[in-house]
Amino acid sequence: MTSALEKYYATNYSQCNLEYNFLASWKGVAYPSHIIQLISLPFQILAFYVIIFKTPISMKNVKTSLLINHLFCALLDLFLCTVCTVYFFLPMYGMFFVGVLSWFEVPNGVQLLIVWLSMTFAAASYVYVFESRNSTLVQNKFRMTQRRTRVIFYSLFLIPCLLAVFVGKVIPEDQDAAKLFALIEYPCPTREFFTSEVLILFADKTIIEGVVRFFPFGCAYISSFFLFQVATLIYYICIAPSNTTSRDTQQKQKVFLICILLQTSIPLFLGMCPIMLTFMAFLTGHYYQEMANLTFCSLGLHGMAESIAIVTVHRPYRKAINQMITDLKKRKSSIRVSPISVHGTSNSVTRG
């Protein structure tokens, strides 16, 4: 800490009378996130296995999109829970990281870029799930049959990545002055603000107001790509199906549509709701550090929810899991029976 921060910590901060709270501390986001990753890992591996080896021929045209979606969701979970675990000060637009990369003193800016890219590509993979399915419908007038069209579409979607470079340019170079500015806006943060290498993203009221106003627009912009593909798929499967498609095929298409809607909506709902609730609490002046920590912990649950959704909503994957469980039970029972049969045989031989 600089002399100005030390003075503030010794005088002004002592009047805050903040009691230690595990959930508000760095441990409150680091430890639960690491535990979540350990619990999620088996489900993620299982989802990889069933997609690669148990996808039936009827789902072959969506196998690649499901695998890509699961890959980026698993990577996002890995970065948020283990590699670049985030401790975020929302009222002060500051952060530091408590993941594995922080042990190697990787700069906060680099870790921020990694998290941002992982979130962007995970969001794009959800769009790709529906877009790839749309492209298989011959009657769909909006399907993308040319590589050029698909490149333009996803380039427009990835505009937030370009904005990340712009955000890097407005990050204050004088971080000590930025921290003092942040303390004026929020005078009583947790002690981690003084004991950790915090990165302040914004220290200008004009920029902060612009970010607050842009946030809903950015969410709407990203959501529009996803909603367009979903709406198009619903229209051409449920409202205006092809006349050349049999009723049996149409019914299978509707069932699969419901499955991918459930598969994608469950993890998206789990991830987006805490973010929106925390942001609304911040705008209304009812923000607490515990809320930010719980938000990032809930984001870490996204990968596990996505993995469980994959292996449960799709019937072929459920059957594969049930068969694996049945085979495992048979192996256990055979192991228990075989020593008895061998013992019985040896006794009969002895008596003979």
Automatic annotation (TrEMBL):
Q: Is-annotated flag, keyword Transmembrane?
A: yes
Q: What are the alphabetically sorted keywords of the record?
A: Membrane, Receptor, Transmembrane, Transmembrane helix
| One Pfam family from the record | 7TM_GPCR_Srh
**From what superkingdom does this record's organism come?**
Eukaryota
Q: Where are the transmembrane segments?
A: 35-54, 66-90, 110-130, 151-171, 214-235, 255-279, 291-313
- What's this protein's name? Serpentine Receptor, class H
List the top taxonomic levels of the source: Eukaryota, Metazoa, Ecdysozoa, Nematoda, Chromadorea
Q: Which gene encodes it?
A: srh-118
